[in-house]
Amino acid sequence: MTTVIIGGGQAGVQVADSLRAGGYGEEITMVTDEAPWPYQRPPLSKELMNTAGAIKPLPLRPEMFFCDNDINLVRGTAATGIDRRRQTVRLADGQQLPYSQLVMATGARVRPLGIAGADLPGVFGLRTLEDAKRLESAIRPGAKVVIVGAGFIGLECASGLRALGCDIIILESGSRAMKRTSSPVMSEWFAEAHRSTGIDLKFEERIARIDTTPGGQQLVALSTLGNRYEADVVVCGNGVMANDTLGAKAGLDVDDGILVDSSLRTSDPKIVAVGDCARFPSVHAGTRARLESVQNATAQGRHAASTILGGTDAYRAVPWFWSVQGKNKLQIAGIVGANDRRITVGQPDEGKFSVMNFQRNILTSVESVNQPAVHMAARRALEHAILVTYDQAVEPGFSLVTATKAQQASAA
């Protein structure tokens, strides 16, 4: 038996690690189209942009890990085709890798702007180490930066570049920041926090075209409202797309991601898909979901390895996310729903508070700002099905940390 893993990110490396930890003694080959050793992506936007000139990738595992665990790591070569009948993967350098089990951990890529001028010099995405280094080389204190999108990546990048002395304008087509992941309360609080540092946030304004000034010294971002914003740099923070093209060409079922069942198997039982590229039936979202987070990549990597080793459990891990924006750390446990009932607990004016979200009186997610203890309590409550109701939470003096500990103690 041979397992081939396409993708050298968090999910792919976790599958290999968990297979070996689970006693898998057959051949493992991992293929990544990036030349560097597998590295952590979150610091590229969350931390490294705060320290110009010091971008150094943090490894997902030490280099010796791959040798010590007899994992054949093929770097700098893309997988270009899958022959499911012959069970082989074709690489760009002409190699043909046979497999008995294939893992699609192909991740995601920056969503194209799809507008004129998107390919001009000075327009950057931020997904890979190479992206981060290119952006870093273009940044100087006082640079004018237009960021497209007020999601996690856009806001993290904005706060980092603002700290470096850049002038920042964010164009967000939606009505609020982080609309896909956060409650309106949290969106408004973070928007004001960024504005207080001098970042100019503009909602319901979409970028329409990118030109250059006469002579080409600067970029000009033109918006759908007819406004012109001169910029030295334009950063695409408008989200990512699943890398599902390879799977689609191989005939796997895809729909904004490779479709998998509760065990993470694709429409071909010899192939599993994990991480950013996989759309799975989520018990927490109540529908199929594709989650872009380290937690999801890691947990699905472990689960896929278990499936390969013969496990039959359904994937049910509680999703959690985090974002570092300037001095503020946002942590989310669970999936925030559009129609949730909400309670704000803590001191928003002091930058330490949480928003608890409920469906049918039951806690389903918690967003915490600079309150790691509350975040951990929320994860415990959701993971262990500890009952926390809206009626309990509105009682004066309610503490999620205390309530969670008390219920766990009584159950022990």
From TrEMBL:
Domain FAD/NAD(P)-binding: 2-301
SUPFAM superfamilies for this protein: FAD/NAD(P)-binding domain, FAD/NAD-linked reductases, dimerisation (C-terminal) domain
Coiled-coil regions listed: none
Residues annotated as domain Reductase C-terminal: 320-401
Cofactor(s) essential for the protein: FAD
Pfam families: Pyr_redox_2, Reductase_C
Gene3D superfamilies, per database record: 3.30.390.30, FAD/NAD(P)-binding domain (3.50.50.60)
Keyword check for Transcription regulation: no
InterPro entries for this protein: FAD-oxidoreductase/Apoptosis, FAD/NAD-bd_sf, FAD/NAD-binding_dom, FAD/NAD-linked_Rdtase_dimer_sf, Reductase_C
UniProt keywords, alphabetically: FAD, Flavoprotein, Oxidoreductase
Protein's name according to its UniProt entry: FAD-dependent oxidoreductase
Organism: Citricoccus muralis
